[in-house]
Write a structure and sequence with these properties.
Elements lengths: L13 H5 L6 H8 L6 H13 L24 E4 L8 H4 L7 H12 L20 E4 L13 H18 L5 E5 H11 L19 E4 L6 E6 L4 H5 L5 H15 L4
Parallel strand pairs: 1-2, 1-3, 3-5
Antiparallel strand pairs: 4-5
Length: 254
């Protein structure tokens, strides 16, 4: 019997049908970057890529879904929100080429989890040590606000990503409330047992969640957006301390 044809990338069910069967992260990322399941996000990411910011008018924007970044055997996941319009949507790498990424990678580098204290482009030589950046929504949303339907449509990609990381994954840092809210519904699909009531949240909050390959230590951190970092709500030392603790819990401290 012939195998059923793969759904087109603009099918709303494309993530749910194509993510679960991905045998590894390389295949998952390849399928992800062709996704067009959310019309509003597709239109916006491509519009941003056409119009471009003046400072980048001579660059060719990625303007596609942005996959995770980091090794396939990572023991620590850092979970954000979505690519930035002129950051990941421009460069094709999460948390790259904008002020948020400058702050995040300075903290990761200080915690000995990143080779460089910045992330400017996919060709800058940046490497992550035992750490993978994960995004609940892979296309840049207008006003940095994906709709609940868009978040849920994108969810199978993160569920499969965490499932594939499962054998080595031991800790996760969630950046802001969106990262936390996006992670918790995904965990059961990857075999984790989420306690009831859900664990407390907030900056520095620590919860241990049992999983099929061992416990997962979840830590909270304010999102490194300019709104938080410029006001001092999140300092470099605060973020570094969270990542250092996460590295110790994950066994990836250097």
């Amino acid at each position: 019997m012939p195998r059923p044809a793969a759904p087109p990338p603009d099918d709303r069910d494309y993530p749910a049908l194509r993510a679960p069967g991905a045998p590894d992260l390389e295949v998952l990322d390849a399928r992800l970057t062709g996704c067009r399941a959310c019309p509003r996000l597709v239109a916006w990411r491509e519009e941003v890529g056409r119009v471009r910011r003046a400072a980048y008018r001579d660059e060719t924007y990625w303007a596609r879904p942005v996959p995770g970044f980091g090794p396939a055997d990572a023991s620590l996941a850092v979970i954000g929100l979505a690519p930035a319009a002129h950051g990941g949507n421009r460069t094709g790498r999460l948390f790259t080429g904008d002020p948020t990424s400058d702050f995040l990678f300075a903290a990761l580098h200080a915690a000995h989890l990143a080779a460089l204290p910045y992330s400017h482009s996919r060709e800058d030589g940046q490497r992550l040590y035992g750490t993978r950046l994960v995004s609940p929504v892979h296309c840049v949303p207008p006003d940095n606000r994906p709709t609940p339907a868009e978040r849920d449509t994108c969810r199978p990609w993160m569920a499969r990503e965490l499932d594939l990381l499962g054998p080595t994954l031991r800790a996760a840092v969630v950046l802001g409330g969106f990262g936390r809210q996006a992670l918790m519904p995904v965990l059961p699909a990857a075999g984790y047992v989420v306690p009831r009531p859900p664990p407390v949240s907030g900056h520095g909050a620590h919860a241990r969640i049992e999983g099929p390959d061992g416990p997962l230590d979840r830590l909270g951190c304010y999102h490194p957006s300019p709104r938080n970092t410029s006001t001092g709500r999140l300092t470099l030392q605060m973020a570094t301390d969270v990542f250092r603790l996460a590295a110790r819990l994950a066994g990836s401290a250097r």
